[in-house]
Structure formats: structure tokens, C-alpha cells
């Protein structure tokens, strides 16, 4: 097994509870999460992670109160514009998974596209921000794409299906980190996490730091990834 996972994905959970414990509005938790995002990006890059995916906003998050959603849209736009120079200087390629709902402000969608273009030639770590993302929707869209292309049912293979998913060059996820102790997939990159290892640190996302991220990588290194098979026999021992 690789000492460092090639692709790490983070479900950034716990912003609301972080704010609630401090008797602050939920928006304060989202604002505090900015520091963690940059800390984790730097830690992943420094550790040699090649692909980092962050779950920023799900298709289900549209069901939150309107004022919170509006705040998130403004906050994410500010973060993107503020940190674009850093991401470019670090050689990080930025991409966005989702971003199809017409409720996304045009200015924010334009900033996403501009950042992807600005960093498109970078050859360092690839940062994928899942925004307006839903794993089930991705699978449905891939099936529709196959049908539109007239692919016969008997010719549909896993590899061919995967080629119709958004951002098809993205490798499978090796490690998923979900903060706050919650243990759910939450419709996140369902196809790509099929054989991922999962770690559920109790710390809330706004308090999650580089040391916590590196501790998750250490946990990953101790795992025995079998992919449904059995470990090799040693010293003639039966499997």
C-alpha cells in the first residue's frame, strides 16, 4: 500500500455545532472553516497527496434556510477570490465538481470557471471542490450519457460507465476523512469511494488542523487494504 494515499477526500462536517457550542450563529462556523480549508490544502500538498477533494456544498444543502445558503454563496466567492493567488503560486490545479444548479449566483459560477482556467496548467496537487454535488446525480447523468451515445446494454462495463462520470480522470478515492464524528457517506462521490478507507475524527471541522490531517494519514498507513480479497500468506499460514 502507498505510504501516502494518492487521493484524499474530506467531508467538512461540524461547522454548525462549532458555532452552537459558542452561542454563535451558524454562519460563524462557516466563516471559521476557512482557516481549516487552507490548513488542510497546505498539509495535503506538503505530505505528497496528489488529489484532494473537499465536499463544500451538496445538492441536499439547498434545503437549508435561505439566509444561510445566501451567506455560504457570498463566503465561498470571497474565499475563492482571496486565495486564488496562493493556489496558483503553490502549483495547485483547481477543479469544481457539480455547479449545475441555476440557483448558483452567476458571479460565483464565473469565479469557479476563472479559477479553474487560471490554475489549469498547474502540475502539482489537484484540488477538487465538490459544490452543488450529489453522488447519485452523477451516476444518473452518466447513465443518461451512455443512453444518449447509444451504447448497447451488453457493452456497458464499469470502466466505460466511469468514463461518463464528471471529471472522469479523477482516480478512485483512497481515504475519506469526515470530521465531527458523524459516520455517513452523505451522497459524496459514491462511485469513487467504493473501496476507500474511512476515518471519523471527533474534532469539528473549524478546529481541524494540519496535525489532525496528518494523524488521519497515519491511520491510513496502518490499514490493510484488501479490495475484497485476502492478504498474502506469510510463513505458510493458511488464509
UniProtKB/TrEMBL annotation:
GO molecular function: ditrans,polycis-undecaprenyl-diphosphate synthase [(2E,6E)-farnesyl-diphosphate specific] activity; magnesium ion binding; manganese ion binding; Z-farnesyl diphosphate synthase activity
Residues that bind Mg(2+): 13, 197
Keywords linked to the UniProt accession: Magnesium, Metal-binding, Transferase
Comment on bound cofactor: Binds 2 magnesium ions per subunit.
EC identifiers of the protein: 2.5.1.-
Presence of keyword Hydrolase: no
UniProt-listed CDD domains: Cis_IPPS
Superkingdom in the source lineage: Bacteria
GO cellular component, one term: plasma membrane
Pfam families: Prenyltransf (PF01255)
Binding locations of substrate: 14-18, 26, 30, 58-60, 62, 64, 178, 184-186
Tagged with keyword Metal-binding: yes
Cofactors that this protein relies on: Mg(2+)
Subunit and interaction comment: Homodimer.
Similarity section: Belongs to the UPP synthase family.
General function of this protein: Catalyzes the condensation of isopentenyl diphosphate (IPP) with allylic pyrophosphates generating different type of terpenoids.
UniProt protein name: Isoprenyl transferase
